[in-house]
Amino acid sequence: MTWLEIAVTAPAELVEVVANVFNEIGSGGVVIEDPALIVELVTKGNAETVSPALELPQGGQTTVKGYFCCDCSLPERLESLSRRLTNLPVRWRTREVREQDWATAWQKYYKPLRVGKNIVVKPYWEDYCARVGEIIIELDPGMAFGCGTHATTAMCLVLLEEFAPGCAVVYDVGTGSGILAVAAALLGARQVSAVDIDETAVRAARENARRNGVADRVSVARGNLLDDLAAGQADLVVANIIADVIISLAPAAAAALKPGGRLIASGIINERAREVRRALVAAGLEPVKELTEGEWVAVVYRSGGNTTSGAGH
Ligand SMILES: C[S@@+](CC[C@H](N)C(=O)[O-])C[C@H]1O[C@@H](n2cnc3c(N)ncnc32)[C@H](O)[C@@H]1O
Q1: If you measure from the C-alpha of residue 249 to the centroid of ligand 1, how many angstroms do you get, rounded to a whole number?
Q2: The domain 113-303: what is its CATH number?
Q3: What is the pTM of this model?
Q4: What are the residues facing 112 on neighbouring strands?
């Protein structure tokens, strides 16, 4: 089957916006190519995580690629795309591709990757010889977000390594591939409830929980934010979405936590961090910790009251 590849070159803060536009107008798949990430992997000595087949995207900006079936609905989708991108500072180009080319294109960028002290994210098709004490997350993100290489995900993994051990109940909001839900379970959380608004992500997350042998402790459901999860039950809520969503989620996240429970929030672009902090404090949460990587910030906040069954910081 022939598909149209639409490649949009965008500044970092618009990457998720463009990916959402692709999803909303019915893209058959979205691939994000981030040159900063690739350069960083190489310069930090993680060159073995980058395939020799890699071609570095030009110009230093991130490219978001969406794929559309060349059928009678294509002109309408293109018109809708053009309308939505018209006021954004982005450039786009198109080319025809065969299905096999794009469905597996991202795999050449994806190799086992160490994150934090002991976590290794391993594509399921790669061989990796685990060292003593390592926690291996075996993953096939498919078309869902969350292969571990993006700074927003990596910072969540680092923070989960610190805060998830000992937690009884964890909520993962916007689970994508399920990477954070699986990590929380492998780090010792007894019950993880993961939600995503996107059915493709729900399927990928369920499959990844099964692949890692934690399906009995990780439940995945389609849902909007914390709408279907019980209040006052979570030792830890993790949400890697975007600043606007974290801001609107703040009161519900505070309500979802047990006294002393933690919220890990990521996906926050630097310029919006102050607004996010304000919203979290207004919801009654107290700051615990922050990480920054490039233009991204991840924060940990704590619900007032006594410490829960979590790591006890
Ligand atoms: C940046 S990805 C994070 C994926 C993964 N948790 C990670 O850290 O790599 C954000 C995810 O949130 C989901 N999402 C966006 N809005 C949502 C909403 N209102 N409710 C639930 N999930 C949502 C998206 O479908 C996407 O899978």
Answers
A1: 13
A2: 3.40.50.150
A3: 0.73
A4: none
| Ligand 1 centroid to residue 117 C-alpha, Å | 25
The CB of 27 under 6 Å from ligand 1? The reply is no
Residue 232 assigned ligand-binding role: no
Tens-level pLDDT at each residue, the chain (313 residues): 678 889 999 888 888 889 888 888 888 778 887 776 655 555 554 444 444 444 445 556 788 888 888 877 788 888 889 999 988 989 999 988 876 666 666 666 677 889 999 999 998 888 888 889 999 999 987 767 778 878 899 999 999 999 999 999 999 999 999 999 999 999 999 999 999 998 889 999 999 999 999 999 999 999 999 999 999 999 999 999 989 999 999 999 999 999 999 999 999 989 899 999 999 999 999 999 999 998 899 999 999 866 555 544 4
In angstroms and rounded to an integer, the radius of gyration of the C-alpha atoms of the chain is: 19
Q: What fold is seen in the domain 2-109? A: Alpha-Beta Plaits (3.30.70)
| Stated length of the chain | 313
Q: Say if ligand 1 is within 6 A of residue 187 CB.
A: no
- Ligand 1 pocket check: which of 21, 149, 175 to mutate, most ligand atoms within 8 Å of Cβ? 175
Question: Which is it for strands 234-240 and 169-173: parallel, antiparallel or unpaired?
Answer: parallel
Instruction: Report ipTM for this prediction.
Output: 0.99
The 10 Å Cβ neighbour count of residue 8 is 24
CB distance 197 to ligand 1 below 6 Å: yes
Asked if residues 179 and 147 have their Cβ atoms less than 8 Å apart, the reply is: yes
Q: What are phi and psi of 169, to 5 degrees?
A: -125, 125
Delimit the domains of the chain by residue range. 2-109, 113-303
Residue 163 Cα to ligand 1 middle (Å): 20
